[in-house]
């Protein structure tokens, strides 16, 4: 069968980089919610910084939901459950319209994470457990405390007090039983962790598999 090549269009075998990127992203435009869960100091924000450009170079629109004032705890809310479920709802809407939402959360309770999965939709929800030994997380928090403004230090102090009180009540961080990805950031570089998340997205059909366009990290 004869192939027609329009003026200015590369012939077969003369694929441009732009065409390759378009062909790569066309097969799968499914939206997704990447739910990063782990204790403070685990490295969730660092992993996010490595992950975002890798998704964008694949032509995906990425929204990071980290500290979002409009989704913060409302006056009178005693737990973070409502805040997390509101974040899950926004992430689900982003995913439903073909975008990728990265939710950066502690989300200490398994029950709340499962409710977030239901809100987003299990087919679009990718749970990433960002793990780290407790002593490493504590050292990172201490180092970060020396660099951040006083207002943020006060907020983090309140969060640590809340975690301490929660632990006394038997509400310490509950690691996921079977996350899509588990990354120990004390052993895994951010770039390697980001590639593991991309592999999980491909395995779930949320990113196309096959030959990938060349990226600055290849």
Oligomer status? single chain
Shape: globular
The radius of gyration over CA amounts to 20 Å
Biggest sheet: strand arrangement:
2-3-1-4-5
Helix content: 40-55%
What's the gist of this structure?
The protein has helices at residues 17-25, 44-57, 81-96, 110-120, 134-145, 150-168, 190-203, and strands at residues 32-37, 62-65, 100-105, 125-131, 181-184. The protein is an alpha/beta fold.
Which tags fit this structure?
single chain; five-stranded parallel β-sheet; 7 helices; 12% strand; globular; disordered N terminus
Can you walk me through this structure?
- This protein has helices spanning 17-25, 44-57, 81-96, 110-120, 134-145, 150-168, 190-203, and strands spanning 32-37, 62-65, 100-105, 125-131, 181-184.
- The two termini are 36 Å apart.
- A 5-stranded parallel beta sheet has the order 2-3-1-4-5.
- The protein is globular, with a radius of gyration of 20 Å.
- Helix 2 packs across helix 7 and helix 3 (81-96) packs parallel to helix 4 (110-120).
- It contains 7 helices and 5 strands.
- By secondary structure, the chain is of the alpha/beta class.
Layout: helices, strands, pairs:
Blueprint: H1 17-25, E1 32-37, H2 44-57, E2 62-65, H3 81-96, E3 100-105, H4 110-120, E4 125-131, H5 134-145, H6 150-168, E5 181-184, H7 190-203
Parallel strand pairs: 1-3, 1-4, 2-3, 4-5
Helix pairs in contact: 2-7, 3-4
